[in-house]
């Protein structure tokens, strides 16, 4: 089912929407648990909060709404450290255990392209592990975000072009004998490290399972995921569809209590900025599709091409996709902040997407497609804090200055 309906704000603009409820019956292999054990061993590791927000549940006319708060993950203001740390750990372990190789014995140069958070996570891990980092950033990344990467000790190359161009430049630079590409998107011939990054993200979903269990919730009914190239989204599919696969095979390893007890799999909703909705376009086309990107405050989601590794899982495992505007994200961000969740525009996108899906013209049909009713539990992934988005901090400072000025006049 593919439809466009009027937006939840009642404006004349259309809500870009795609739905395929059959995705809930699709299964895949469960996620290995090694990454979770590794993260638990890291200094300073702690599960990030899962906030129960009754005010949002009342607004959305569902049973409960939980927000996974990734504003402080392993000392960084976004979830990306989970994937980067696990992938780099595995790369270095393979190098040390595999005998002599090009560059063996000296530090590696870890190369990445980034809109901000992934590159900073790679640079932080490189610094902590005595390696070097070289990060390529596309145009449009805020100077403060670039400076934060440099402050981690990385060499930074600013690329006069969009994210996809920065990725190509990083891949070229990683051809050097002492370099390895640590990228969270995949293409033909480059899949191993992106797959490790996806495995690293599985820790986030394992934490959600445990945290929901602590408050008596067996499993969510809807999980909303902000999507750039789709690696976190792939991790969501692998976790929630893979659990069912493990249960059907007669094992509960990697499975939640709900899945192993035969509980229904949750609906998964992809949320992208309307300026860069490459996964929505791909789902509509039925094939991996690139789109031109525009300007958006949701900088970490400003990607024009889905990961080739993620695409098969997204195509089969996502129930629905929606694209939201910057004003919708800004409204959601303000509401999350007021409820005590220090989010950024990317982290607020899931709330904006769920609002658009569950309200306004056509909402009854979209709710039915997602299997959402008044008793449903909804989980929103707030993947970054305010500190991850310098544009947001700059805007808030400007607004505060204007407010002070109006008081003094």
How would you describe this structure in keywords?
409 residues; alpha/beta; single chain; globular; disordered C terminus; disordered N terminus; 44% helix; four-stranded parallel sheet; eight-stranded mixed sheet
Summarize the structure.
With 409 residues, this protein is α/β, with parallel strands linked by helices.
Name the helicity range.
Answer: 40-55%
Kindly name the structural category.
Answer: alpha/beta
Shape: globular
Largest sheet data:
8 strands, mixed
Q: Strand order of the main beta sheet, please?
A: 1-2-11-10-9-12-4-3
Uncertain spans: 1-13, 98-103, 244-262, 397-409
Strand content range = 15-25%
Task: Return the average pLDDT rounded to an integer.
Answer: 88
Q: Give Rg in angstroms.
A: 20 Å
Topology as H/E string?
A: EEHEHEHEHEHEHEHEHHEHHEHHHEH
Question: What is the rounded distance between the termini?
Answer: 55 Å
How many helical stretches? 15
Query: Would you report the number of β strands?
Result: 12
How would you sum up this structure, described in words?
It contains 15 helices and twelve strands. The chain is α/β, with parallel strands linked by helices and 409 residues long. An eight-stranded mixed sheet has the order 1-2-11-10-9-12-4-3, sandwiched between helices. A four-stranded parallel sheet has the order 7-6-5-8, sandwiched between helices. Mean pLDDT is 88; it is low at 1-13, 98-103, 244-262 and 397-409.
SSE layout and pairing:
Layout: E1 2-6, E2 14-19, H1 34-41, E3 50-52, H2 54-60, E4 64-69, H3 81-97, E5 109-113, H4 117-128, E6 132-138, H5 143-151, E7 155-159, H6 163-173, E8 179-181, H7 192-214, E9 222-226, H8 231-248, H9 257-260, E10 267-273, H10 278-285, H11 311-317, E11 320-324, H12 326-338, H13 345-358, H14 363-370, E12 377-382, H15 390-408
Parallel strand pairs: 4-12, 5-6, 5-8, 6-7, 9-10, 9-12, 10-11
Antiparallel strand pairs: 1-2, 2-11, 3-4
């Amino acid at each position: 089912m593919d439809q466009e309906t009027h937006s939840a704000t009642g404006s004349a603009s259309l809500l870009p929407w795609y739905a395929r409820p059959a995705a809930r019956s699709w299964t895949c292999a469960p996620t290995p648990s090694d990454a979770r054990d590794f993260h638990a061993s890291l200094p300073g590791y702690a599960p990030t909060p899962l906030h129960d927000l009754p005010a949002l549940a009342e607004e959305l006319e569902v049973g409960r709404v939980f927000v996974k708060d990734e504003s402080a993950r392993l000392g960084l203001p976004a979830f990306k450290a989970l994937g980067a740390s696990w992938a780099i750990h595995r790369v270095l372990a393979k190098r040390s255990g595999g005998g002599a190789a090009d560059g063996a014995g000296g530090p590696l140069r870890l190369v990445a392209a980034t809109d901000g958070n992934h590159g900073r996570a790679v640079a932080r891990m490189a610094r902590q592990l005595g390696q070097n980092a070289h990060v390529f950033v596309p145009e449009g990344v805020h100077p403060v975000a670039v400076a934060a990467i440099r402050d981690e000790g990385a060499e930074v190359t600013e690329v006069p072009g969009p994210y996809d161009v920065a990725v190509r430049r990083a891949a070229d630079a990683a051809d050097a004998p002492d370099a390895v590409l640590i990228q969270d998107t995949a293409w033909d011939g480059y899949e191993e490290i992106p797959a490790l990054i996806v495995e690293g993200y599985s820790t986030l979903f394992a934490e959600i399972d445990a945290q929901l269990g602590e408050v008596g919730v067996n499993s969510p009914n809807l999980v909303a995921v902000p999507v750039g190239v789709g690696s976190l989204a792939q991790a969501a599919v692998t976790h929630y569809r893979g659990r069912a696969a493990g249960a059907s095979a007669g094992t509960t390893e990697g499975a939640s209590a709900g899945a192993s007890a035969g509980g229904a799999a949750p609906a998964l909703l992809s949320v992208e900025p309307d300026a860069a909705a490459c996964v929505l376009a791909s789902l509509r086309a039925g094939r991996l599709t690139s789109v031109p990107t525009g300007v958006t405050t949701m900088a970490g989601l400003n990607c024009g091409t889905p990961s080739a590794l993620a695409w098969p899982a997204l195509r089969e495992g996502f129930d629905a996709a929606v694209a939201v505007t910057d004003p919708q994200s800004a409204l959601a961000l303000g509401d999350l902040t007021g409820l005590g969740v220090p989010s950024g525009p990317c982290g607020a996108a899931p709330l904006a997407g769920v609002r658009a899906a569950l309200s306004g013209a056509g909402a009854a049909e979209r709710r039915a497609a997602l299997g959402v009713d008044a008793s449903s539990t909804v989980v929103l992934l707030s993947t970054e804090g305010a500190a991850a988005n310098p544009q947001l901090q700059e805007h808030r400072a400007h607004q505060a200055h204007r407010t002070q000025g109006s008081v003094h006049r």
